[in-house]
Design goal:
The protein is mainly beta. The strands form two sheets. It has a nine-stranded mixed β-sheet with strand order 1-8-7-4-5-12-11-14-15, with no helix packed on it. The chain has a six-stranded antiparallel β-sheet with strand order 2-3-6-13-10-9, with no helix packed on it. A hairpin with a 2-residue loop joins β11 and β12.
């Protein structure tokens, strides 16, 4: 009896592992994404030039923090022109394309992550080459998570922009880098969320463009997709140019245009 039971167990294990071996591994979408997004252009390892920081396991898949840093070594005369943020397994993988002034060295925002995925940041440098770095995030359901804000309140405050400059860090006298942050009140509906009352999908409604100026100098722009979280929040590091004001303009997919201006804090 024991021998027969042992044979049955061994057979069950064999069937189990055999089924696992036959089960198809999830297809890696990255090669196709490179072809579709970057037209098959070669991507070079970007280590030492740019970096991407995200938690390995997200606490909330609908608001996962991501920080992109430009880390060109001293003496490198090139500049980063744009960074494309790609969340490979999201329904719409391109989260955002950031076009940056040479003085911008960091961008931080919050994104939705729909499933366990690689996340890539691809930087286009002034020499025309593309450089890539990646990280891996464990999260699920971020793109379809219901909105956190009250619907009526969100409508009343739609497009309200807030701006904050952070105190200058204690650095060497030669460094003048500052940080600032812009938040836009907007539901940024992904089109994949379900209304909890009607059980119908909430239509796509996102901030598709954001432009930020320091005086007349365009510091950064963002062309955003459905992966940018509710109430888009962009923090960035920049070099002050002495301008007296900052101003921003945002547009959404329903044609609304939001504008705001703030005095620059010149204290160091």
């Amino acid at each position: 009896m024991r021998r027969k039971f042992g044979i049955l167990c061994a057979l069950a294990l064999a069937l189990c592992f055999g089924a696992g071996a036959l089960r198809a591994e999830p297809q890696d979408p990255w090669p196709d994404l490179v072809r579709d997004i970057f037209k098959g252009k070669p991507l070079v390892d970007g280590k030492g030039l740019i970096s991407i920081e995200m938690p390995s396991r997200a606490e909330d898949a609908a608001i996962v923090p991501v920080t992109l840093r430009i880390t060109l070594p001293a003496g490198d005369t090139r500049a980063v022109k744009a960074i494309t943020l790609v969340i490979d397994q999201n329904p719409s993988p391109v989260a955002a394309v950031f076009t940056v002034d040479p003085g911008v060295s960091m961008i931080s925002t919050r994104v939705r992550v729909n499933s366990y995925t690689n996340v890539h940041a691809v930087a286009e440098l002034s020499d025309g080459a593309l450089y890539v770095v990646q990280t891996y995030v464990k999260a699920s359901g971020g793109c379809s998570a219901p909105a956190a804000s009250d619907t009526q309140q969100a409508k009343a405050n739609l497009g309200l922009m807030r701006f904050r400059q952070f105190a200058a860090p204690k650095q060497t006298p030669a460094s003048t880098t500052r940080e600032a942050q812009i938040m836009i009140r907007h539901p940024n509906n992904s089109g994949l969320q379900m209304d909890q009352i009607t059980h119908l999908y909430v239509p796509l409604f996102i901030v598709s463009e954001l432009r930020v100026w320091q005086g007349d100098q365009l510091l950064l722009s963002m062309d955003g997709g459905i992966s940018i979280s509710e109430d888009p929040n962009i923090r960035f590091a920049y070099r002050p140019n002495g301008a007296a004001t900052f101003h921003a303009e945002a547009r959404d997919t329903d044609g609304h245009v939001f504008r705001a201006e703030w005095p620059a804090d010149q204290s160091m």
